[in-house]
Design brief:
The chain has one domain. Strand 2 (61-66) and strand 3 (69-75) form a beta hairpin. Helix 6 (350-357) packs across helix 7 (363-379) and helix 7 runs antiparallel to helix 8. 17% of the residues lie in helices and 41% in strands. The strands form two sheets. Strands 1, 4, 5, 7, 8, 10, 12, 14, 16, 18 and 20 form an eleven-stranded mixed beta sheet that branches. A ten-stranded mixed beta sheet has the order 3-2-6-9-11-13-15-17-19-21. It has 406 residues and is an alpha/beta fold.
């Protein structure tokens, strides 16, 4: 709690919070979930994770987290025999979390990570031993509930040398005024390969402020994807630190805001070693009076010679009341690199709409086809294919709202 004393809370006058709605956040509205509301560990209201887990299909392990505390966890027996750990951070062996919990988030602190650490109730740990390949995804379900409460979900993924794993993090809440202060840490050791998918489907009054940060070793790879569809205001800081030579990081995102939502993304591709590669593709759409913000930085340090980095953000603005901000940035200290960035904000292309309508496609269906086609290249690259159908349906429903189909 000492870290909170004298802490300076952010405002939209700071560059990193530019265009955000952070000035609207009244922390006095929220209180941490009381310990008695967390309930005893192991008591799960929806055993097996319910429909959210079922949509993900076959899995190697499951963790259900309610208001930041693990209430259920399970793991394939064969993989457990090989050393795969899927459990609650507070229930795991101390040796499993010593030296790794906070290794990523402490390297990029802000007021909300300090608040998170002060009220951390548990969270999920996925630890893969060196050399172990986990073919099916490990599913982590974070459910946050309670009017006027704040919860602090945490996911810690530790992939040992030459290991391989896919992790699905799914964040959701009902229609409540709730603050979610989340941290995700991805530690990817030398020659390890991690595929990670985060899906945010919060209720329309929930606020989220989240950090997702990865550290990559030599010849390691991360394929990280984010889908953001819910929340009142939902912010994600997605950071990738390429510390080892030959490391590779791919960051993808799909987001769709409607009504008066704000979806806010701040990204960092931080190259600190030679021959590293990163690629970022974020695609979003907004309608009604929703707004999105994307601000990204590609940093190529002096040590990052012969590295390659690209950053692309594209946005569709579907109605006059909606808006999108896109601010790509480069910071290059090395002199032998290849780097590019691009951004675009605009409405549906009239020529595309005319082409479809001239062939008998109704206007509402034409818009739906164009928006779904806009997102399709990201959907095809999501690491949990069994979930893509459900996500497509949700996006299609939001497009339907544009034409009064709700």
């Amino acid at each position: 709690m000492g870290r909170l004393d004298g802490l300076s809370w952010p405002s939209s006058s700071e560059e990193i919070w530019r265009y955000s709605r952070i000035d609207d956040l009244d922390l006095g509205r929220y209180r941490p979930v009381p310990r008695e509301m967390l309930g005893p560990a192991g008591v799960e209201p929806a055993p097996g994770g319910g429909p959210f887990a079922a949509e993900a299909g076959d899995r190697a392990g499951l963790v259900v987290v309610r208001n930041g505390r693990v209430v259920h966890h399970e793991v394939d027996e064969g993989l457990a025999a090989k050393g795969l750990e899927v459990c609650g951070i507070d229930a795991c062996e101390e040796a499993s979390v010593r030296g790794v919990l906070g290794a990523c988030s402490d390297a990029s602190p802000d007021a909300f990570t300090a608040l998170h650490d002060a009220f951390l109730a548990g969270g999920a740990l996925v630890r893969v031993p060196p050399g172990v390949v986990v073919e099916k995804p490990v599913v982590v379900l974070h459910w946050s509930e309670g009017e006027g409460l704040a919860s602090f979900p945490h996911t810690l993924v530790v992939a040992g040398e030459e290991s391989e794993v896919t992790v699905l993090d799914r964040f959701a809440s009902p229609d409540v005024d709730h603050l979610v202060d989340a941290v995700v840490e991805l530690l990817v050791a030398d020659n390890a390969h991690v595929r990670y998918l985060s899906v945010q489907e919060h209720g329309p009054r929930t606020w989220q402020v989240a950090l997702q940060r990865s550290h990559l070793g030599r010849d390691a790879s991360l394929r990280s994807s984010a889908v953001a569809l819910g929340g009142d205001y939902a912010r994600l800081r997605s950071e990738s630190y390429l510390a080892g030579e030959g490391a590779e990081s791919d960051l993808l995102a799909v987001y769709f805001g409607d009504r008066d939502q704000m979806l806010d993304f701040r990204t960092l591709q931080d190259h600190a070693a030679p021959r590293t590669r990163s690629d970022l593709l974020f695609k979003g759409a907004v309608e009604d009076e929703a707004h999105s913000v994307y601000s990204g930085l590609v940093r190529l340090r002096r040590e990052a010679q012969r590295s390659i980095a690209s950053q692309t953000n594209r946005n569709l603005v579907l109605t006059h009341g909606a808006g999108a901000e896109s601010i790509p940035n480069l910071e290059i200290e090395a002199n032998d690199v290849r780097c590019s960035h691009a951004s675009a904000v605009g409405p549906i292309d009239d020529d595309q709409r005319y082409y479809l309508e001239s062939r008998g496609v109704p206007p509402e269906e034409a818009d739906r086809l164009i928006v779904m086609g806009f997102f399709e290249d990201v959907f095809e690259r999501l690491p949990v294919p069994s979930l893509v159908g459900a996500l497509r349906r949700t996006v299609a429903e939001k497009v339907g709202h544009l034409h009064g189909e709700r």
